[in-house]
Amino acid sequence: MEFEKKARQYSPLVLAYIGDSVYEVYVRSRLLAEFPDLPAHKLHVLATARVKAHAQSNSIRFLEPLFTEEELAVYKRGRNAKSATVPKNADLTDYRRATGFEAAVGYLYIKGDRERLETLMKQAYEHAADEID
């Protein structure tokens, strides 16, 4: 992928921007596969519980030791980035950790490392599900 060379050049907030979308689609796809007969509203409620900042923050505590050095560096850049937005429904610590997680997801997506991306998103999803259930 052309972007692979540039993955490190994107700002952490741009990586988080794309990572947010990638993880959201992953979660929605998993939920639809697991619960094909649920109404859209219930799927939305389940998805929201898994993608909100608090859930991502809890997942990152589990995932952080599994990160490679490169992924950890991207996560920290995202976590420490100064965002113009203020969290509406999350405390600042959860919001920053979630931004770091999304930056790592975005980085792996742009880099084209789909296998590693799938591994981390699967673990984050399953960890979030354990926290919710």
From TrEMBL:
Enzyme Commission number: 3.1.26.-
Function noted in UniProt: Involved in correct processing of both the 5' and 3' ends of 23S rRNA precursor. Processes 30S rRNA precursor transcript even in absence of ribonuclease 3 (Rnc); Rnc processes 30S rRNA into smaller rRNA precursors.
GO terms for cellular component: cytoplasm
Domain of life: Bacteria
Similarity section: Belongs to the MrnC RNase family.
Classification via SUPFAM superfamilies: RNase III domain-like (SSF69065)
Principal subcellular localisation of the protein: cytoplasm
Pfam families: Ribonuclease_3 (PF00636)
Subunit record text: Homodimer.
UniProt-recorded name of the protein: Mini-ribonuclease 3
Upper lineage: Bacteria, Bacillati, Bacillota, Clostridia, Eubacteriales
The keyword Isomerase is assigned to this record: no
Subcellular location: Cytoplasm
Catalytic residues (positions): D20
Gene3D superfamilies for the chain: Ribonuclease III domain
Species in which this protein is naturally found: Candidatus Avimonoglobus intestinipullorum
InterPro entries: Mini3_fam, RNase_III_dom, RNase_III_sf
GO molecular function: ribonuclease III activity; rRNA binding
Gene encoding the protein: mrnC
Record keyword Oxidoreductase present: no
Keywords per UniProt: Cytoplasm, Endonuclease, Hydrolase, Magnesium, Nuclease, Ribosome biogenesis, RNA-binding, rRNA processing, rRNA-binding
Domain annotation RNase III: ranges: 2-131
